[in-house]
Amino acid sequence: MTANHLYVHVPFCARRCAYCDFSIAVRRNTPVAQYVASLERELEIRTATGRLKTLYLGGGTPSRLGAQGVSQVVSLVRDRFDLERDAEITIEANPDDVTIEDAHGWKNAGVNRISLGIQSFDDSGLKWMHRVHDSAGARQSFEILRAAGFDNISVDLIFALPESLERSWQRDLDTAIALGPDHISLYGLTIEPATPLARWTERGTVIPSDEDRYAEEFLLADEMTKAAGFDHYEVSNFSRPGKRSQHNSAYWSGARYLGVGPSAHSFDGERRSWNVKAYADWTARLLRGDSVIEGSEVLTRENRVAEKVYLGLRTRDGLAVSSNDRTSLDQWTDNGWATMEGDVLRLTSEGWLRLDSLAATLTGI
User: Fold this and answer.
1) Tell me: the pLDDT tens digits for 322-365?
2) Best exposed site among 23, 95, 160, 253 by fewest CB in 10 Å?
3) H or E element, residue 184
C-alpha cells in the first residue's frame, strides 16, 4: 500500500483512565525493545511505501517509549518511507512522562509537534479521571517542551465532566489559553461500555452532565478560544494560524493512510482495514510471521456519500452542495446552524452541536 500519512499506535499506559476504552497495555515497565522489534516486523510484512507528509505516534501513551524508543520508531519509519523535508511528526505525550532529557531526545529524533494530554488543570478532577499527573505537573511539562524548542504544541482538555466534581470549565480554559499553546483539542466526556465510568454511572454514583451543560461548555470554549485568536477549524479542534493538525486534517479530507500497531486502522481509498486489538496478540502473530489484520470492509457508494457529508460538515472548510439541495437547507441557515457561501455549506458552532442529525439528513446529497 502506498500512503502519504502514517499512524503508529503505541499502546502503553501507566494506568487506565476512568473514561478510556482505547486499545492500551498497562505496563509498569514499558517493553520498548519488544515493541520496536514487533513494529519493524509489521512494516516488513506490510511492504508499504510512500512519501510521507505526516507521521503520528498515538496511543496509548507514545511518550512512555522515552527518547530512545521514539527515536527508534522514527528511524524505522525513515528506513521504510521517504519523509518529506517538512513532514509533520507528532507524538502524543502525558505530562508525567515529560522530562528535559526526553524532550530534547524527541526533538533530536525529528519530532516537531507534541499533543499533550492535560485533560484538566483541576487536581480533584484529574484524580477522579485516574490521571497520573497534577495541575502543576501539566504546566511544568508544557514549559519543558517550549524550552526544548517545540513551537507546535497542542493541549487536550475534556469538558462536560459531572457537575458534582465542581470543576470550573472557564478556569481550565483560562489556564490553557494563558499557557500559550499553538493548538487546543477539546473532547466532551462520553460514557463507553466496560469502563470504570460506565460502572460508576450504572451504580448511580456518577450522574453524567446533561445536554444543556454539554452545549454550554462547548460554546464557551468556542467563544473564549476565538477571542484569544484561535481558529475553530474542526468540531473539536482550535489552532493558531498555520498550526492546524495536518495529520488529522488528512483523515477529514478522505485521504489514504496507513496504520500500524495494535488496533490501528488503514484506508486505501476503497477499503478500510484494522489490526488486532490486544498487544499480546499483535506481538505473537508477528513473531509467527502471521498477518495482524483482523478485518476489513469495502466502502459502498452509500458509505462514501455518508462519509463525504459527515467529514465535510465537521470542518470549517465545509461541504459543496448542489443548487437543487439548497432550498432544503434554509431552515439550517435560518436557525443559525449553518451558513452558505456560494455552493459551500458550513456548520456554525451551534450547528456542530447537531452534527450527527444534520449529516444524516444530507446523506442523499
Assistant:
1) 766 666 788 899 999 999 998 899 999 999 999 999 898 887 54
2) 253
3) strand 183-188
How many Cβ atoms from other residues are within 10 Å of residue 347's Cβ?
Answer: 24
> How many domains in the chain?
2
Task: Evaluate whether residue 272 is within a structural domain.
Answer: no
Domain that residue 208 falls in: 5-252
Q: Are residues 233 and 312 in the same domain?
A: no
The DSSP code sequence of 265-299 is: EEE-SSEEEEE-S-HHHHHHHHHHT---EEEEEEP
Q: Is residue 271 part of a domain?
A: no
**Secondary structure of residue 182 in the 3-state scheme:** coil
Q: Would residue 48 count as lying in a domain?
A: yes
Q: Are residues 23 and 170 in the same domain?
A: yes
Share the mean pLDDT of the chain.
94
Model pLDDT for residues 86-99, shown as the tens digit of each residue: 999 999 999 999 99
Q: How far is CA 82 from CA 42, 43, 71, in A?
A: 18, 14, 16
Q: Which three cell numbers stand for residue 322?
A: 448542489
91 and 205 fall within a common domain: yes
